[in-house]
Design goal:
Elements lengths: L1 H28 L6 E7 L3 E4 L2 E10 L3 E4 L13 E4 L5 E10 L3 E5 L5 E7 L1 E10 L6 E11 L4 E11 L3 E6 L7 H8 L22 E3 L22 H5 L9 H16 L7 H12 L3 H30 L4 H6 L1 H19 L8 H11 L3 H15 L1 H15 L5 H23 L12 H29 L6 H19 L16 H19 L23 H6 L24 E2 L2 H11 L3 E6 L4 H11 L2 H9 L2 E6 L12 E2 L5 E2 L2 H13 L6 E5 L16 H19 L1
Parallel strand pairs: 2-12, 14-16, 15-16
Antiparallel strand pairs: 1-3, 1-13, 3-9, 4-8, 4-10, 5-10, 6-9, 7-8, 10-11, 15-19, 17-18
Length: 722
Amino acid sequence: MQRNQLTMKKIFLISLIFVFQILIHSSVWAQLLRPIQWESKTSTNEAKVGETVELIFTAKIDEGWYLYSNDFDPNLGPMLTSFEFTPNDTYSLVGKKPTPVGAKKKFDAEIWNGEYTYFTKTAEFRQKIKVLKENPKIHATANYQVCSDESGKCIPLEDDFNFDGIKVIGGVAEEKKLDEKSKNQANSNQSQDLIKEETKPLETTNPNIVQVKTDSAKSNEEQPTTNNQQLTTNSQQTILTNKPPTGNLLAFMLAAFLSGLAALITPCVFPMIPMTVSFFTKKEKSRAAGIAKALFFGASIVGIYVLIGVLFASIFGADSANLLATHWLPNIFFFIVFILFALSFFGMFEITLPSSLSTSLDAKAEKGGYLGAFFMALTLAVVSFSCTGPIVGTVLVEAAGGQFIKPVLGMLAFSSAFAIPFTFFAIFPSWLQSLPKSGGWLNSVKVVLGFIELALAFKFLSVADQVYHWGILDRHVYIAIWTAISFTMGLYFLGKIQLPHDSPISKLSVPRLLLAIATFAFTVYLFTGMFGAPLKALAGYLPPQSTLDFDLTAMKLASPTNVSTKQVKYGDRLKLPHGLQGYFDLKEGLQAAKQAGKPLFIDFTGHGCVNCREMEANVWSAPEVLKRLQEDYIVVALYTDDPLELPESEWVTAKNGKVKKTMGKINLNYQEERFGVNSQPFYLLLDHNQDLLTPPKDYDLNVGNFVAFLDAGLAEFKKRKL
């Protein structure tokens, strides 16, 4: 009896732990996110019949999230914000679609290969309507997507708006003459414009604003989707690139600091170190005074370059991000500037400031004192300009278009590395004896920097080429140029190539040999990209994979051994990455899983989900993950933002009474009501009863974690079959 009681206690304890674990896991992933709140207003509370009124939609977006706008190419990939208006005889629409106000622009060369518009923190859309009768009843439904680069999630959402506060006063407004085409457009149901157009923000100065409450779930049935656009997935474009982290100031400052160290060992700067040190050791009578002046000298160098950063940030700060990222003019300008920098480093000519300037500053430096130390620092900056100018220019250009503080921090890091050696050698002059002697190696450093400048120049030309679709610098051409530059630099290290200011090389030093080996290794790595290797380490600098003419990797993945010849439902419009065989309909995928005796891998994804593409590029592409998805699971991708309207027999009525008619809304409703989650990417492993095999997985770029997730699900599936 006592033994039975002990057994019952153990069973109860184990059951309690199991339930507790389920609750913990549920609290982690079972949550509906809504990082955006909408409000709606009208531009006036009174209007005459025939007058035009603006409907104003405003959104407050949580920190770290962004909302896609509605005025970029719908074929690009992200889900555009769309507004559907219920037509009736009390009003008509004026214009094709609501106008976005204050949207930002960005060109994405890694994922979408195109320009899109978006909002952060706040968003605003304005739609003009014409009042046709008294008591106009206006109902609108917004469909949109918000994403976060921090959490790696994207969420398609929907909100309803009712405008019923417009009071129609006496009289009829003067009728504006519209041609027949304009009338037809004004009376049509405008849910989504399918043509990319440049829309100027609409400014309204009318202070008479009326607040209208948002109705999030009032209509019992959705309005039919009238978007004729059928989004498609370009697998080569979206799966073989990775997106570098944005706003990484620490990494940028480290690169700027290393650039400052590189500037020290150029032929314009290195010989000046002992000359500068002698300025302080000979001028000052006491060592303490010499140290104080040396510290002031170092601080002056930092101050001069930081001032340059502040001036540059004022001109090319955050407000110029759109221009620098998308317009051809600044990118072509920077391309030419970097080419000139490279040719200067190669010894073709020197970029110098007027000699009269350096002479004048040098004379003022001779006066001594703290003012003399400042002018000594300014003289150093001017005299060394032919070597430091291109390096400083590179740092500033890389900072352009980012945060306002970025050029300032870049110059702070650069000048700190540049100033510290001068300051320390002035304080400890005996250290000068440990410095290597000046010689031909200094010019070699300068030439190597020239090769780097030459390679970076083509990045700017590539941006302009991709934005305007010139087709002159596709991926294979770009990689070929970089491969040639890298190979030539390797020959230079071996002494096979000599430039105008180089010294003859009688024997090859060990450092040059090692650098040559490293450069040739990089050349081989680049060369593999000519045949389809993704070159993930350079994804942020290369044109997208879709522009490659000859892609052996894609050809292999698309071979008959990896792709099913059977026509799956929606297979004509949707594709899985990496040549995976799978399904896009849950019922069809479940039937295939039962026939194959395999568990289901459910991928809740979206056309506009950037982080879904990142997972596919960086995690799914790993051989250990791809093998498991191919052999152990039936993959079902459920798109939550696809606008395809399904037959009426497949429509679903949600718990709130709304009828879901499109593929995307039906899949999203299934995700929300069955699993309590509305964000993507979201991965589930299910058995044939659609029960979870293991806790779900969302955005996680750790390949090992994803392999463990798949292995745990497969083990549990096999266990349940016993």
